[in-house]
Amino acid sequence: xxxxxxxxxxxxxxxxxxxxxxxxxxxxxxxxxxxxxxxxxxxxxxxxxxxxxxxxxxxxxxxxxxxxxxxxxxxxxxxxxxxxxxxxxxxxxxxxxxxxxxxxxxxxxxxxxxxxxxxxxxxxxxxxxxxxxxxxxxxxxxxxxxxxxxxxxxxxxxxxxxxxxxxxxxxxxxxxxxxxxxxxxxxxxxxxxxxxxxxxxxxxxxxxxxxxxxxxxxxxxxxxxxxxxxxxxxxxxxxxxxxxxxxxxxxxxxxxxxxxxxxxxxxxxxxxxxxxxxxxxxxxxxxxxxxxxxxxxxxxxxxxxxxxxxxxxxxxxxxxxxxxxxxxxxxxxxxxxxxxxxxxxxxxxxxxxxxxxxxxxxxxxxxxxxxxxxxxxxxxxxxxxxxxxxxxxxxxxxxxxxxxxxxx
Amino acid sequence: xxxxxxxxxxxxxxxxxxxxxxxxxxxxxxxxxxxxxxxxxxxxxxxxxxxxxxxxxxxxxxxxxxxxxxxxxxxxxxxxxxxxxxxxxxxxxxxxxxxxxxxxxxxxxxxxxxxxxxxxxxxxxxxxxxxxxxxxxxxxxx
Lengths: 408, 142
Ligand SMILES: Cc1ncc(COP(=O)(O)O)c(C=O)c1O
Known about the structure:
heterodimer, A: alpha/beta, Aspartate Aminotransferase, domain 1, Aspartate Aminotransferase, domain 2, 2 domains, seven-stranded mixed sheet, four-stranded antiparallel sheet, 14 helices, B: mainly alpha, Sufe protein. Chain: A, two-stranded antiparallel ribbon, 6 helices, binds pyridoxal-5'-phosphate
């Protein structure tokens, strides 16, 4: 029990949680979309713009040096957070989506081949699907999609069978944003590597909930967004193994990423700058460092213990609601509860929950193929963070009951 | 009853309720009285884009020179919203439809649904109804 976080104290540092909506206390259960930010993160952003703002890697002046040092220190700190071997294996992007587009684009150029094959799963977010799909479509290739089991876990037999067809790359989510399923990315990487196939892991829904050890997973690319992990919007992380990042051509061209430019030719800067064209979101990078340090201070173990309590308690309470159906019940699933009530449209349910002060997401959650796979138009999704309480899960269940009564 | 009177009536009915949930309850109840679209017309052609839920809308110009709407939705709150629009706009001439300012939406507190980023498509429904009226207006003037 000693590992549980002091949630009441934690909540004090999240000003956004202390508000009322429609006269009711806000219950924020849309953390899969984005988390609220602790004061430390908000203050870090403020501090940057108040006292440190200058463009990086460019000036000879004091402030420029200050922000450059802070930026590079943040890179080292992100590298340490996920146990990357070297800090130049960390590339800052706008988010998960940009990071995946970067790899898909540069990998396609590097491979430069006809009929490429990409292996994904049926639970991918559009961001880890469309960039690959567009590449293979344009080159007469094939998107191979590994199916799911009824509990929402990956069908490993199917995955392994597809792997035998020797795809050019595997792109898989660490945690499903709809089902909460945690994929065995370490085992997957190991069997893909045995066939010489590189692996990209989409960690957007993992980084706020579980420790990520890049060397242990051994994947070639790992990507996540700051804003889903208590950090600011507009910053994301692309981890790439040095051998890969060295090999891949740049994604965008411009300032900062060049070594020497003439009208005839350009040589590119070294890693990580080769992949960071233009002025980055410096303030957000610094605040991301603060967000990750908030997570470490709270402790992944404590976060996971509390969030698993929330999830199983939520499941237990909601399962008493008549005609409720859950999507994603794989063992060890993350802090996401996706559900529908038979005969009730998720949009109706979400609208009434909103009026009761409860923020959930409804719809396809940017995973339309998964919805097709499940044969439903969408779900209601409650996604939890470390600052949610057991009491909020009770209020969620009460509200769902009440709304269902109105809608039947 | 004129379109304006229909709007006033709706405003009055909603003013009886303070609580949001009661207002939505009323909206859901009103959706049950919607002139339901003929299953024949419940096709993709009559589907309105921009909604998280599906909305089908049909319009016909009858001999009396007035436009009659029918609709349905798989979400009951959305159906309630269309039913309000139909109460105000159905059975009116194309001119009336085009000239009606739907102020009741603001007055009953559903303005938030008018935001173009809202996924229920109230804006798209209104646009579609006015578009029908425009087409019929051209027809009647020829
Ligand atoms: C699994 C997964 N991948 C990718 C993304 C895209 O993240 P972003 O919009 O921050 O680029 C999300 C966000 O919803 C996600 O849940």
